[in-house]
User: What shape does this take?
Amino acid sequence: MQDRSETASANDRRLPATVGLALAVDAVELRFGGIRALRGVSFSAEPGRITAVIGPNGAGKTSVFNTISGFYKPASGRVMLGGVDITRLPIHARAARGLARTFQNIALFHGLSVLENIKLGGHHTMRAGLLSAMAYSPWARREELALRAEVERKVIDFLEIDHIRHLPVGVLPYGLQKRVELARALAMQPQVLLLDEPVAGMNREETEDMARFILDVQEEWGVTVLLVEHDMGMVMDISSKVVVLNFGEVIASGTPDEVRKHPGVIQAYLGAESGVPA
Assistant: This one.
């Protein structure tokens, strides 16, 4: 992995640190008909730290993410953001409270440019009403220009994508598209960032770059990061805490070293004869 100190020390990349919010999932039950997708799931993500959720296919990882972000409504239990119960809040209200996410399958507008896609993430912060925006009033125009300047200064430079900002997203290679999706989430000015398989389908170089950016977001922006990922090398390398799901239940939670040695994880996730690679 590249040395992050060189990048982090550059003055034009140093951003004022923010304080990420605590995120907690408390006894969440999720059902689809007679199927219990989540069975009393409880865990927490500490403010300003990286927490990973891992588990076999079908363990309930994406269901947890969809419950946290508001796509699924739990049958019981709570989702707490910064000590506030957001379980029944709509998706846009959660975004307004500082929650942002990326998706396992890239959800970008391929006909729009990189800059246009990223700016969409910041539009919820604008105060101009619908009529002002449609008429492109002086107030709306000033807000639009300010948003563009903020995105270019903070996000595009930070993720090293200035050279592609005017290109249509559809012409970019997969790894850069994933980086643009991360940029759009950062344009929302999140305090908690959910990353759903951020390096899925990437080669080793792209994976190392993305891991470096995730660490930079956590260290320089102070954002709380919760990620779902199958790349165990990356998970163990960058996470402060790892939560393991199996059949919709939490079977282990702790530091990477603790989880790596947990017999239940070895049995359920990797097979009885294996250990998690460092």
Q: What stands out?
A: The chain has two domains: 4-98+190-270, 114-188. The two ends are 14 Å apart (CA to CA). Residues 114-188 form one domain.
